Amino acid sequence: MERPDGFLKLIGREIKSSGLYQSTNSGDAYMDNDVKEIVLESWNKWSSDYDSYYPHTIKSAKEDLEWKNTLKKLVGNKVQNILDVGTGTGFLAIDLTEMGHKVKGIDLSEGMLKEAERKAKDRNLEIQFVIGDVEELDEPDNSYDIVINRFILWTMQYPEKAIREWTRVLKPGGRLIVIDGMWFDKKLSYQVEKFLGNLLILFTEFKNPWKKTTYFEGNLKERLPFTKNKNACTVNLIFKKCGLKDVKVTELVEVEKEEKKVMSLKELLLNPYRKIVIEGVKPE
Ligand SMILES: C[S@@+](CC[C@H](N)C(=O)[O-])C[C@H]1O[C@@H](n2cnc3c(N)ncnc32)[C@H](O)[C@@H]1O
Predict the structure, then answer these.
(1) pLDDT of residue 281
(2) C-beta of residue 275 within 8 angstroms of C-beta of residue 74
(3) Domain for residue 118, yes or no?
(4) In this model, does residue 169 exceed pLDDT 90?
(5) Is the predicted pLDDT of residue 6 greater than 90, yes or no?
(6) Cα–Cα distance, 233 to 38 (Å, whole number)
(7) Cβ-based burial of 107 (10 A; exposed 0-12, middle 13-18, buried ≥19)
(8) How much is the average pLDDT of 152-170?
(9) What is the DSSP string of 138-184?
């Protein structure tokens, strides 16, 4: 995996969990780089078992087929030059490479990228994975046909800045495709389903489901704006603000249908969130 010059200043530093996110005064004392380092370290910690969590990887052949059908509809048949921002363990990069596209995957977390590289190697795929910050891409203007990502917006400190940056590297006429879940939508039906899922854990596994174990420590989520009751549909407004046209939001209906077929009752209740795709075109 490639490490661009200058980036190691961020990832090479030892991260001491106890120090970095303690406020130095009574208010919010995070520095931007500290936030990024905590995000990075959280994903490094999560990397080895990220794929085992719903809904990160494919659980059935039919779901795999539906993802590929969906991606084919989104990306088209023509071979495209694609940038997968926040590629993580490489889900989109791998699928899109298997479909014949030229893909580069960028991520902050070396741990996640190691998993991506391992999976690509297992499948005999040549994919360029690079360590980098997708809020400040080290990529020239107007260079990609498609910029795509899945499930990353909520973990961006500055989602609008990120979307502007992704738009910058798109060729005129190129498309930005964001696949996201409504993870932090406080809709009542989501809360009821999660509550029932937690009750199921309490009475069948005799564990306290409300005792949270999280990879995101401290009050980091306070600094990630999309974790605060933001409906992911608001993303389409940001797309428009960033100058993208033909913006549309669709639901990942077919993929979800297949996913749900292999989920247990507990998984169904704990994961009620709908998934959406937001698309926009960079004007010529
Ligand atoms: C929920 S995972 C999604 C991974 C993958 N796209 C997928 O579909 O499974 C979020 C990813 O975003 C990455 N990430 C978060 N902030 C980032 C940043 N500023 N620059 C690059 N990657 C970032 C994390 O390291 C993590 O791999």
Answers:
(1) 98
(2) no
(3) yes
(4) yes
(5) no
(6) 27
(7) buried
(8) 93
(9) -S-TT-EEEEEEES-GGG-SSHHHHHHHHHHHEEEEEEEEEEEE-TT
Which residues does ligand 1 sit against, CB inside 6 Å? Answer: 39, 43, 56, 86-89, 91-92, 107-109, 112, 133-135, 149-152, 155-156
Other beta carbons less than 10 A from residue 222's beta carbon:
12
pLDDT at residue 55, as a whole number? 74
Query: How high is the mean pLDDT of the chain?
Result: 84
**Does 3 reside within a domain?**
no
Is 264 within a domain? yes
What CA–CA distance (Å, rounded) separates 204 from 202? Answer: 6
CB 148 within 8 A of CB 84: yes
pLDDT tens digits, 235-253:
888 999 999 999 999 999 9
Q: Please tell me whether residue 207 adopts helix, strand or coil conformation.
A: coil
Mean pLDDT for 192-211 is 87
Determine the distance separating the centroid of ligand 1 and the alpha carbon of 202, expressed in angstroms. Answer: 31
Count of domains observed in the chain: 1
The verdict on residue 137 lying in a domain is yes
Cis ω before 140 (30° cut-off from 0): no
Please report, for the domain that includes residue 178, its CATH number.
3.40.50.150
Atom number, ligand 1, closest to the C-alpha of residue 149: 6
Domain housing 18 = 8-281
Contacts of 273 (CB under 8 A, 6+ apart): 181, 182, 183, 185, 190
| Spatial separation of the C-alpha atoms in residues 95 and 222, rounded to whole Å | 33
CA–centroid distance, residue 185 to ligand 1 (Å): 20
The C-alpha torsion from 133 through 281 and 184 to 50, rounded to 10°, is -50
What is the end-to-end Cα distance of the chain in Å, rounded? Answer: 33
Residue 234 CA to ligand 1 centre (angstroms): 20
Per-residue model confidence as pLDDT tens digits over 28-59: 445 666 778 888 888 888 888 888 877 777 87
